[in-house]
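Annex B. Sample input.
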Amino acid sequence: MTETSTSATRRLRGRATGLVVAGTALVLAAPVPAMAATAQAGATAADPVSVLTYTAKERRDALAYWTPARMKAVGKSVDLGETGPMAKPWQGPALNSVGRLFFVNARGADTWCTATAVKSANKSAVMTAAHCVRRGSSPVNTNTTMVFVPGYAKGKAPHGAFAVRTVASPRTWEEDSNNDVAALTVDANKDGRKLTDAAGGLPVAFNRPVGGTVTSFGYSATRPQRGEQLLQCTGKTKKEHGTQVIPCDMTGGSSGGPWLADFDAATGKGVLVSVNGSLDSMTPTKMYGEVLGATAKKMYERAAQGGKTGNGSKDGTDGNGGGPRGAWERLIGSWWSKLM
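Annex B, continued. Sample output.
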């Protein structure tokens, strides 16, 4: 998103109300040592994408943590009021590729977003919002214990749960809360099936002109659904503050949900052109989403390659993800969250 005083104000309002449940409020970040800041600045110039990698143990623990009972409980723990008149329960065929992204946020709270399985060479890529994986303008505050459940509906996980292995997000989000989109790579489910083999995947379009009709989906925490049923909004996109906007009143929990162009309600097929980013608190019937540009494409390509970092490493040892700096970020982020 282009940085202007107007867009900055909109973005801060959106983050304050938030679409991710239980933990969207902005907080002061822990100070970053000068050495880390210098390394980060150099990495930004070389690579616009930041990759965070979760260890094999962290992924096993995430699957063990998110039991069916816990998934149900997190929805019951949040009530954001009645579902608005624009958001309608989806009554068409099952959208197997769309699901809930469960995680523990940087403050230690169980919560969720919405995410989408997308077509990719490794059959393991997912698109969502950046604020669903890490707090904006705060490199140390990252979410953990992350599991994607495609096709989730009323307590059922028809295709299983997929632990998140890597998270690719824009460095501009990490540093300045700009460009609210992220791409994930997930493990196979417990049966050994890759994501899109199990649940299918939707195509993604980059640099698509704004102005067409889209249908947006999300697991809003409003009642009576409380995250247990998929909601939808349909409208024509318009450019605003360097992003795009549609008429929609879905709230917390719908973050990261797909905007589908060329959507066929009879088949549930469409092309992902953005994701739910923020609801303007001054006009809570306007949903913002990023225009998927060059950085979004790089993130998608990174996720489609298994989350490889700039030097081709899969484990983030070049400092972009789960190597020494990534581990430091998670450690400090966990420590800082206990002070909030």
